[in-house]
Each structure stands twice: as structure tokens, then as C-alpha cells.
Amino acid sequence: MAENDFAEGNAGGGAPELNTNAEIHGGFADWRKVYDRLEGADRARVDRLIESMRETAIEHAPEVSAERRERLLKEKATLSVMNTRAMADTIGTPEDPVGGARGFVIEEDREHAGEHYTVHKANPALGASTAIAARQRMIAEELRLWPGFREE
User: Fold this and answer.
1) Which of 106, 102, 101 is nearest to 120 (CA)?
2) Which of 22, 1, 2, 9 is nearest to 125 (CA)?
3) Which domain holds residue 108?
């Protein structure tokens, strides 16, 4: 993300010193900061998503205040962009399903006591995507964006 001093490729480059959980996809970022930095096609996508959900939320969750509804719609739409980026780090994109994706399992070279070894671990983008999807479901349920899917 632009203006993120810790993002790979930006000034200040990479994660803070001693941070072994550095991510390159932005899936763990604060959605508000992501929204504030969105431009172009991503901003237009978020705006379209908000607009497409608004009428359903108004109709099916009238008890949610307008202010809260708009904040939740903005959050859910922004999370959609974030989830797309996290999944692209894992499985790629429809346009390029392999290029740039690190896959489900990633390798990390490590050193300990002068010995070098490789560790295989799950791509952290999977965890980000799972957390994002869970939050999106919570918002959808509160705003009743899937009427008839879950009857109370």
C-alpha cells in the first residue's frame, strides 16, 4: 500500500526489525487505512459494492442506524478488496492464476546457531483471508444482506 513505510518496496522497506510476520498482501491492515488509500479501480469497486448492498440493508435491517449502516457497508466493501489481494498472494488472480502467487505453502530460509535450514509453513495470507471472510459474514448478518438465507 502506498504510504505504508513497512510495505515491501516502499521507503523504509519491509517489516519493522525483528518482525517475523511480515506480510506482502495487506490482508492484516486496518480496513480504514486501506479505504483512505484506495484509488482508481479499487475505489470505484468499493463504491459500487456499497451501492449494491445499501438498499438491501435499509430494507432488511431498518433498526441499524444510517451512520452505522454506512460504516459497515464501507468496511465490508473495503474488506472485499483486501480479501482479493490476500487470495491473489495465495492462488493468484483470474488473469494470472500462478504468477506472483506464493501458494498455500511457503518456504522460509532460516538460520540458527550458524546452521541454515528451510521451514515450510502455511501462507499467512490464508489466515488473513479467513479472518476477513469471517468479519464480512458478521457484517452481512447484522445488515441482513442475505435475506431468507438465515431466518431468525
Assistant:
1) 106
2) 22
3) 31-142
